[in-house]
């Protein structure tokens, strides 16, 4: 399946909400997302991306066959980490294991490196999320180590893994 990233449009909210209103996906994301995730939630998120500082927030819809099936964002950090950015993403369950997110990660990172002064992009998937770790590895990210007892998700203390990609590596 061919995937591509695109800038958000308000008309993407319905497909975005349908993809994100899934506990299997939300169990692998940071806390704070409503469940069920509604079209109105999607509209609010997309509107927020419109008003975000374009030099600090790089947010894209992940699409295949012109349907939104996921989201990817790269977020600039602060202070001494100002040329570093954190990557986060998800894809609808029906599209898992098809290489779509790997391609979206590659496209997004290339865009950020080509259009900003960012020199390092990192991601911190939950250690148990082998599929997400594999996406990063296939996209060229290097495993840097395990962050032990680094998060509390669904009442459990869990490890996270640290991956990074440098501008000089693409």
TrEMBL record:
Lineage, top-rank taxon, reads: Bacteria
Under SUPFAM superfamilies, the record lists: Acyl-CoA N-acyltransferases (Nat)
Q: Report any Pfam family annotated for this entry.
A: Acetyltransf_3
**Gene3D superfamilies annotated for this entry?**
3.40.630.30
Q: The N-acetyltransferase domain covers which part of the protein?
A: 3-167
Family annotation (InterPro entries):
Acyl_CoA_acyltransferase (IPR016181), GNAT_dom (IPR000182)
State what protein this is by name.
Answer: GNAT family N-acetyltransferase
Species annotation: Bariatricus massiliensis
